[in-house]
Write a structure and sequence with these properties.
Layout: H1 13-18, E1 21-25, H2 30-41, E2 45-50, H3 53-67, E3 71-75, H4 81-90, E4 96-101, H5 116-144, E5 147-152, H6 165-185, E6 190-195, H7 204-207, H8 218-228, E7 234-235, H9 239-248, H10 253-268
Helix pairs in contact: 2-3, 2-8, 4-5, 5-6
Keywords: Oxidoreductase
Protein name: 7-beta-hydroxysteroid dehydrogenase (NADP(+))
InterPro entries: NAD(P)-bd_dom_sf, Sc_DH/Rdtase_CS, SDR_fam, VLCFA-Steroid_DH
Length: 270
């Protein structure tokens, strides 16, 4: 039976349960950066993965100085399978007990008007790289008899969403994978959690060409997610995510598709 961590992510509970180290993708900003800071505060050593090496190096120094932890920087573009494999090899010497797969990006607008290279790169980052890392670390965790995996899903994962069709599809993959692995790996001592926030006030919206004026902060998402790790298969961090879930729950799937399409149209109006 998996044990829940303490309500604040605990000064020692996370390290006791999963430690001594965690690997966080997308750690250079937004939700990934918030996870890195919270995990460092809980005493876990870190492997920080993102494309921007200089930003990661600054974060590593900050966390080492503030919390006395060790931090390794691995600059990688996760849309490139060879670079994902480099991350796997470069972390093989560490006892990593927690994977937080927070890297990802979105696009918006009519699918047929999108750039095909960008849409395929999004699948590579959001799905293929996530699957590769999850498979690698799940095997390592099974061998050590314990571990934790956090996969970043989204409120859009539960139905098709017009004007974000491909992005929603990638998050549906993440959500389904996490649910299946939660059931599959829990008897082997591994906690798997899908974190499905609604709008988040981070750099994600700008890259995805979405106007996000209200939502959860990255810090709120990271805190709520770590509180839920070991308790359930899915968490929906943030009041807005919970409110949207309640409003969509009574609707048939076609109704949810319609409503989320209207929400997305409002967020992507030029």
């Amino acid at each position: 039976m998996s044990r829940a961590v303490s309500p604040q992510g605990g000064s020692s509970a996370l390290r006791d349960r999963y430690g001594p180290a965690a690997l966080v993708t997308g750690a250079s900003d937004g939700i990934g950066r918030a996870f890195a800071r919270r995990l460092a505060g809980a005493g876990l050593d870190l492997v920080l993965v993102a494309r921007r090496e200089a930003v990661l190096a600054d974060l590593a120094r900050e966390l080492q100085d503030r919390h006395g932890i060790a931090a390794r920087v691995l600059a990688a573009d996760l849309s490139d399978a060879a670079q994902v494999e480099c991350v796997v090899r470069a972390s093989a010497d560490l006892e990593i007990g927690l994977l937080v797969a927070a890297a990802g990006f979105g696009t918006s607008g009519p699918f047929v008007e999108g750039d095909p290279g960008t849409e395929l790169a999004m699948i590579d980052v959001n799905c293929r790289a996530l699957a590769q890392l999850t498979h690698t670390f799940a095997r390592r965790f099974v061998a050590r008899g314990r571990g934790g995996i956090v996969l970043m899903s989204s409120l859009v994962a539960f139905q098709g969403v017009a004007r974000a069709a491909n992005y929603a599809a990638t998050k549906a993959y993440v959500q389904t994978l996490a649910e299946g692995l939660h059931a599959e790996l829990r008897p082997r001592g591994i906690d798997v959690l899908a974190s499905a926030p609604g709008p988040v006030l981070s750099g994600f919206g700008q890259r995805a060409a979405m106007r996000i004026t209200s939502g959860a902060t990255p810090e709120e998402v990271a805190a709520a997610t770590l509180r839920a790790l070991g308790r359930s298969a899915t968490v929906r961090p943030g009041l807005l995510a919970k409110a949207l879930e309640l409003s969509l729950k009574p609707l048939p799937r076609s109704g949810r598709v319609h409503m989320m399409g209207r929400v997305m149209a409002g967020m992507t109006a030029r």
